[in-house]
Design brief:
Rossmann fold; NAD(P)-bd_dom_sf; SDR_fam; 9-stranded mixed β-sheet; oxidoreductase activity; alpha/beta
């Protein structure tokens, strides 16, 4: 059985990758990481019902940790990547429970741009708080859990990127309308800080890829695309991202380690940084 930890998994893409793994023919125990333990536990209950309904009577009770006949299982764990103490407590919990992880999926992130738009934070605060969680928090989470990942016979490390590349932003169908002349601009969906942090994860991934090659750790950035999340209402369903991440976990993209991959290939805009120096 493979042990997977997914951060920010109580909803959206994180939730969907947990669901996809629970419905897999392969064997998993998934730690569903959530900033709120209560929301994480509620997500586990919902997953139990959804997985049981979709898999049929034979697998009723799927995803219920206490069920001895479950094929795959899930367990909520409280982890707030903005807090070093929370990360350390989660580490100790997993270490005492199973002693290793096989896959770490760094999915948790926040969007602070709207705090500035709504007058709740300064422009600088909206940027620095986003980097503190999405980049520094992800780095600390990865660094802290690395001893458990290195206990795996097939360690995998995944950074979930987002609306982050110049190529995406330049597309004609990118979901932002042309702006009028003048300053400041009236932007309906301000996500520049969030997108910058997701781009920073590309370099963080490359650094871990470089450092961990000798340890046999497979590392990727994965871009699920513009999905129906907190950023993109009305876009494609987040289950698309869940299935993409599941395919990476299950070895479908092993030939693309150290790269930023998307559903139909690789994101070409990161080619300029694919060769680490």
């Amino acid at each position: 059985m493979k042990i997977v930890l997914v951060t920010g998994a109580s909803k959206s893409v994180g939730y969907e990758v947990v669901k996809a793994l629970l419905q897999s023919d392969e064997s998993y125990h998934v730690f569903l990481g959530s900033r709120s333990l209560e929301r994480g536990q509620q997500a586990v209950l919902t997953l139990r019902n959804e997985c049981a309904d979709s898999l049929g009577p034979r697998d009723k009770g799927c995803a219920l940790k206490e069920c001895p006949n479950c094929f795959n299982t899930v367990e909520a764990i409280q982890v707030d990547i903005a807090s070093d103490l929370s990360i350390e407590k989660a580490f100790e919990t997993v270490k005492a429970s199973v002693g290793r992880i096989d896959v770490l999926i760094n999915n948790a992130s926040v969007i602070k741009d709207l705090d500035y738009v709504r007058g709740k934070a300064s422009l600088r605060e909206s940027f620095t708080s986003s980097y503190d969680v999405n980049v520094a928090g992800t780095h600390v989470m990865t660094w802290t859990f690395m001893p458990l990942l290195l206990q795996s016979y097939d360690p995998r490390l995944i950074f979930v990127t987002g609306l982050d590349t110049f190529e995406e932003s330049a597309r004609e169908d990118f979901p932002l309308r042309p702006l009028e002349r003048g300053w400041p601009k009236k932007v309906e969906l301000e996500t520049v800080g969030y997108r910058c942090t997701k781009t920073a994860l590309n370099m963080l991934m490359l650094d871990y890829h470089h450092k961990l090659q000798v340890d046999g750790v497979k590392v990727w950035c994965v871009g699920p695309g513009f999905l129906a999340t907190d950023v993109g209402e009305g876009a494609n369903h987040p289950s698309i991202g869940g299935r993409l991440l599941k395919s990476v976990v299950e070895g479908k993209r092993d030939g693309d380690t150290g790269r930023f991959i998307v559903k139909d290939g690789m994101a070409t805009t990161t080619n300029c940084i694919l060769h680490y120096r």
